[in-house]
Amino acid sequence: MAVITVKMLESSAQVSCYKLVNGSSRCSGRVEVNHRGQWGTVCDDGWDLADAAVVCRELDCGEPVDALSDAHFGSGSGPIWMSYVMCSGSESTLKNCGSSGWGKHDCDHTKDVGCYQCLLIFLSSGVRMVGGSRCSGRLEILHNQTWMSVCDAAFDQQDTEVVCRELDCGAPVQVLGAAAFDKGDTQMWTQEIQCRGNESQIHLCPTSPSHENNCYHDKEFGLMLVGGHSRCAGRVEVLHRGQWGTVCGDGWDLADAAVVCRELDCGEPVDALSDAHFGQGSGPIWINYIECSGSESTLKMCRSRGWGKHDCDHSKDAGVICSDVDVSV
């Protein structure tokens, strides 16, 4: 069995080693760690894909498909060296990740961790663009050896930044609906991706169950102005997950309004209004504390607290007056 040896920067100049045991290849199996000359295991408390990514990288095995627990590859023996490992996913070695400390745990070998089939055949953890070029197209994610489309209603600027970084494609320029590069006939990914924007791979981002019935191939992100005397003035309303909702006025400014006006082909912003200037909306408040630079092509590409996360009510609904509107408004 191949073992990658890494020199560690301990004061005692010891050497720590890592290997995967009992898997179908050298790139899958139970994680074992050599510390102080003795092989031991890692407890699964807190074990996730970010931790597995560091192991796979250190063993020159590509990216992780799964991070397994409960002694999936059999119970180990000897000391349990690590518990509550906390990697960001970008560390060069598992030892650089936070943990409860060497040998400190409340675990037994029934909770030994494993890494499943780190992939060497893909340049990323399983992300590709289809129907365009390497850096543009319909986004698909590899899950359980099946390529799946990603619902555009559940994908935002932070998610896009991670995909572009993972594919070595620079900064994102525009998020388009799936139909822009052919709808495709792949199965729809049923998890909502919630990246912070600094992850190295999309598979390291947190996910939550998505409303599958609201994620069809023909679903588009929508934006409109309501309650004004023109289509270019009114309360900002956003279509997300098939439901229209509003934008909270907290932090709403001309840079944010500029993106709305541009997206609706309404010229430049004249005013960015809050406190339900155009009347209170109803339904969900989709966006709060939005932070646009003003150059984004769509409101969806601006940073915010996340879809539906707010401490707001409809008395603070945001509104916009754009330049392409009657002066009587």
UniProtKB/TrEMBL annotation:
InterPro entries: SRCR, SRCR-like_dom_sf. GO terms for cellular component: membrane. Disulfide bonds join 43-107, 87-97, 151-215, 195-205, 248-312, 261-322, 292-302. The keyword Repressor does not apply. Keywords: Disulfide bond, Glycoprotein, Repeat, Signal. Residues 18-118, 127-226, 223-323 form the SRCR domain. The keyword Signal applies. It comes from the Eukaryota. Pfam families: SRCR. This is SRCR domain-containing protein. The lineage of its organism: Eukaryota, Metazoa, Chordata, Craniata, Vertebrata.
